[in-house]
Design brief:
Keywords: Membrane, Oxidoreductase, Transmembrane, Transmembrane helix. With about 260 residues, the chain is of the alpha/beta class. It is about 50% helix and about 20% strand. The protein has a single domain, classed as Rossmann fold, CATH 3.40.50.720. The two termini are about 30 Å apart.
């Protein structure tokens, strides 16, 4: 763990971003740094995370970094509380996640992958959101952002662990929104489609309506500013979600079963 400061001595109003070493997390770090917000950045890759932090510090804000694997949920809860003690978190953006699916050579999903995705995509971010809410409740303010996926809307036979973990996070966020609104704490659930990140580049095949990571970060920040409960992008997936809810299950099952996908290791 390292702590380094920029030239501006900001106090309070920190933005915590997990998964900040690349992709949407990195873009959000630079966006909030440009707004003058001090940052607490978490990631798994020390070199990449430090590169993100250096650019953020060049914009004149304080940046604290932490290297942590979110498969250890107990360690993540402890770390969040430690960081909040010294750098009170006003916005917690829990952007870290995994996107593994069944490989073309696999008959079924690997049990170890199912467990890992359940921890990183659902259990740990949900627990971190609860830990952040504990601290925010004492201050009477704050905002939590949970990154799900449009995959949460569909039962994907080639990615049962991924779609299932994101669906669990979606339901947790919806419940937490109702629980925390009376306490002055906002919760935004983000359900993106394909975004051009290292994770999505592993997917083999078409990526319809692909978004850039900077564009995704801007959409998420605007949703936080407006206290939106749910952000789905691009918009076409909101339409597809409506169609999905109206479609009879036997027909839907036939379509989903016919979809093929694979990813590079």
């Amino acid at each position: 763990m390292t702590v380094r400061s920029g030239s501006r001595m900001d106090e309070g109003a920190y933005v915590l971003i997990t998964g900040a070493s690349s992709g949407i997390g990195a873009e959000l770090a630079w966006l909030y740094a440009a707004r003058g917000r001090p940052l607490v950045l978490w990631g798994r890759n020390a070199e990449r995370l430090e590169n993100v932090a250096v650019r953020a510090r060049s914009l004149g804000v304080r940046v604290k970094t932490r290297i942590l694997d979110l498969s250890d949920g107990a360690a993540a809860i402890k770390a969040l509380r430690q960081d909040d003690d010294s750098h009170p978190i006003d916005i917690a953006i829990l952007a870290a996640g995994l996107g593994d699916m069944r490989r073309g050579s696999d008959v079924v999903e690997r049990a170890e992958d199912v467990l890992h995705l359940g921890l990183v995509n659902y259990a740990t971010p949900s627990a971190m959101a609860a830990a952040a809410a504990e601290r925010m409740a004492t201050r009477g303010r704050g905002h939590i952002v949970l990154i799900s996926s449009v995959a949460a809307f569909h039962a994907l036979p080639f990615a049962a662990a991924y779609s299932g973990s994101k669906a669990g996070l979606k339901r947790f966020a919806e419940a937490q929104q109702m629980a925390l609104a009376p306490l002055g704490i906002g919760v935004t659930l983000v359900s993106p489609g394909f975004v051009d990140t290292p994770m999505s580049r592993r997917v083999v095949g078409a990526k319809p309506f692909l978004q850039t990571a900077p564009a995704a970060a801007r959409k998420i920040a605007r949703a936080v500013d407006r206290n939106r409960p749910h952000l789905v992008f691009p918009f076409v997936f909101s339409v597809l979600r409506l169609v999905d809810t109206l479609m009879p299950w036997p027909f839907k099952r036939r379509i989903l079963s016919a979809i093929k996908a694979d990813q590079m290791d």
